[in-house]
Amino acid sequence: MSTLSRRRVLAAFGAAAMPPVVITAAARPARAAAEPPSNTALYADPAYTEGVDYARRFRRHAALDDSDGPGDAFPDTVIVALHGGGIEPGTSELCLAIAGYHPAGGPYGGTTGGTVYDYWMFEGIMPKDNGKLHITSIHCDDPVALATVAGSRRTVSLHGCSPEEAGVEDDDEPAAVLVGGRDSTLKAALIEAYLAGGIGALDAAGVPDLNGDQPLNIVNRNLTGAGVQLEMTTPLRERMFGTHTRAGRKSTTKPLFWKFADVTRLVLAG
After folding, report:
1. CA dihedral defined by 224, 87, 179, 81, rounded to 10 degrees?
2. For the chain, what are the domain ranges?
3. Domain 39-60+75-269 belongs to what architecture?
4. pTM, 2 dp
């Protein structure tokens, strides 16, 4: 599929104001300025504590087949958010909604009924500077994440980026999602569906830093060797929530949030 024009951004939505970040002082060991080289390295770093600085959430649905007949009805789609919480805000909530769960708790079927998918997310939960916890997709080596993705045929990875990183900062409407990864069929279907739904969508093939096509990218480490990476710009994510904080996002979702989740789920259900 040819790269879409970066100015082909169709939707314009009212932006929500970003509230100030609450900063609290706490005595902690000195943290390295460099990005952690892997999840394993981060988990072993005494400067960070799980449940205080970061969190991991996942759900792997039970599958059982003890019959003699053909057995191919098992969970085969996984949704991941490697940089959730305060690292790339909004990706945790979208991960849950696309997987079939309301971010405030309980199920969410949307327009596709009660279908649920496995998910995994890593979240920064510090009061500030959560970007220090960013681990690149090719270096994600969390054992649960790897095992969950490895057993899937389709994988969708949710990320956040700035308009500058996406190359749309000069566009009239920089709220867009860049769709990348090695699953060309699912990628094309998502781009078409987002555009049809009035959501700005671009082929990430023209943005090497965000195209998600590396074989070692965890989104491509599934049974087919190909997944889809969604890079959503900051303006797009900000317009999905009334209160853009970790505590506030889950209960202040806007229509754009549900439209994005529903469009993605409809494609996955197709």
Report:
1. 30
2. 39-60+75-269
3. 3-Layer(aba) Sandwich (3.40)
4. 0.85
